[in-house]
Amino acid sequence: MKSVILGSVLVASLLALVVILFRKRIGLSWLTSFGIHLALAAIGIYVVNYSGWITGAYIPLNPATIGTVSILGLPGVGLLLGLKISLFG
User: Fold this and answer.
1) What share of the chain is helix, strand, coil (3-state, %, to 5)?
2) Taking a C-beta distance cutoff of 8 angstroms, is the pair 45, 76 a contact?
3) Span of 38-42, 51-55, 56-60 with lowest mean pLDDT
4) Which among 27, 31, 38, 25 is positioned nearest to 76, based on CA atoms?
5) How many folded domains does the chain comprise?
6) In three state form, how does the secondary structure of 21-49 look?
7) Is residue 9 part of a domain?
8) Residue 10 domain-assigned (yes or no)
9) How far apart are CA 57 and CA 25, in angstroms?
């Protein structure tokens, strides 16, 4: 019963999002911008991991870290490094 309710909420919110996108006539330009931000976030994390600037600090490439860096930009990489160093020594 719980999965049916969660599935129906997911479908309803997906339909609402599609209606909003077509009603506002946003287009697909936001998708290109979002893709560029994701690629630059992954490249930024990759550069920090394999450049050797900070030894012993490795930021994994997963959706949470890439999402953080794509929203916050390069300061997000600093945030993740600070969290990694302060929490895991």
Assistant:
1) 80, 0, 20
2) no
3) 51-55
4) 38
5) 1
6) HHHHCCCCHHHHHHHHHHHHHHHHHHHHH
7) no
8) no
9) 43
Establish if 12 belongs to a structural domain. no
Amino acid 31: pLDDT: 79
Question: pLDDT at residue 16 above 70?
Answer: yes
- The first and second tokens of residue 18, run together, are 């599609």
Q: Which long-range contacts (CB under 8 A, 24 or more apart) does 36-45 make?
A: 37/70, 38/66, 38/70, 40/70, 41/66, 41/67, 41/69, 41/70, 41/76, 42/66, 44/69, 44/74, 44/77, 45/69, 45/77, 45/80
User: pLDDT tens, 17-38?
Assistant: 888 777 777 667 777 888 888 8
Environment class of residue 77 by beta-carbon count within 10 Å: exposed (0-12), middle (13-18) or buried (19+)? buried
Task: Look up residue 86 and give its amino acid.
Answer: S
Q: Does residue 8 lie in a domain region? A: no
Residue with tokens 């990694």: 84
